[in-house]
């Protein structure tokens, strides 16, 4: 399995945020995007996930007997949790499990197992909106577990987490990588992964952000 980006550029509004971004990831590889606020990390993740068009370049996915559309191989966890606050956690996860479905390469775990894996097995009957910010983030992460996708695209996955939840996420990410999955993540915090590659986004901002760091 390979996820390749070649010569990617993206624009938001009038501004070209980055250009000529390339990477080539195989099974078990992790690429961490770092850089100042506004440097284009989220934008790059959304381009790779197929949620924004690229200004130039392309993203390709190749796996045995699979579609070459990279977006179909990806789980995307953005800044927002993509869960309805008035629905219970179980209802939200059930929606995602059905909507995403499984692929020929693998199957997701049950909703009960996914909520146990993120350390919150007892509260899946509650409306998502009742949960604390950290609990909501954990349950959003459970979305990655209920349907299988080989590529995990995570935007600030550790936001709002306590130390124990950070360990849980690191463990789940490591298990995903050890099973041959791929990771592309933007983060300001270390994810605790060995052998992750780093791509530092510099952006084309008119402001000398790098000088401020
Ligand atoms: N819809 C939009 N229209 C115009 N500009 C946008 C839009 N969305 C984002 N931007 C701009 O694009 C730039 C890059 O934003 P992006 O969210 O990719 O940065 P980031 O590196 O992920 O930042 P952070 O570390 O703060 O999450 C920012 O200057 C932002 O204001």
TrEMBL record:
InterPro entries: AAA+_ATPase, ABC_transporter-like_ATP-bd, ABC_transporter-like_CS, ABC_transptr_haem_export_CcmA, P-loop_NTPase
PROSITE patterns: ABC_TRANSPORTER_1, ABC_TRANSPORTER_2
Keywords (A to Z) from UniProt: ATP-binding, Cytochrome c-type biogenesis, Membrane, Nucleotide-binding, Translocase, Transport
Superkingdom per UniProt: Bacteria
Domain ABC transporter: 3-212
Pfam families xrefs: ABC_tran (PF00005)
NCBIfam families: ccmA
Family matches, as PANTHER family: ABC TRANSPORTER I FAMILY MEMBER 1
Family to which the UniProt record says this protein belongs: Belongs to the ABC transporter superfamily.
Name of this protein: Heme exporter protein A
């Amino acid at each position: 399995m390979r996820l390749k980006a070649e010569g990617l550029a993206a624009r938001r509004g009038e501004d070209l945020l980055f250009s000529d971004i390339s990477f080539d990831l195989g099974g078990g590889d992790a690429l961490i995007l770092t850089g100042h606020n506004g440097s284009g990390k989220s934008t790059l993740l959304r381009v790779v996930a197929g949620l924004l068009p690229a200004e130039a370049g392309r993203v390709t996915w190749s796996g045995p007997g699979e579609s070459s559309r990279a977006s179909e191989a990806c789980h995307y966890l953005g800044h927002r949790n993509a869960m309805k606050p008035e629905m219970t956690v179980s209802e939200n996860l059930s929606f995602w499990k059905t909507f995403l479905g499984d692929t020929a390469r693998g199957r997701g775990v049950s909703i009960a197992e996914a909520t146990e894996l993120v350390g919150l097995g007892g509260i899946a009957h509650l409306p998502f909106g009742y949960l604390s910010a950290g609990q909501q983030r954990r349950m959003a992460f459970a979305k990655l577990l209920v349907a299988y996708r080989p590529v995990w695209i995570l935007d600030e996955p550790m936001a709002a987490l306590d130390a124990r939840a950070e360990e849980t996420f690191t463990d789940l990410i490591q298990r995903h990588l050890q099973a041959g999955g791929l990771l592309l993540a933007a983060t300001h915090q270390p994810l605790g992964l060995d052998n992750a590659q780093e791509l530092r986004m510099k952006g084309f901002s008119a402001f000398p952000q790098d000088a401020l760091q």
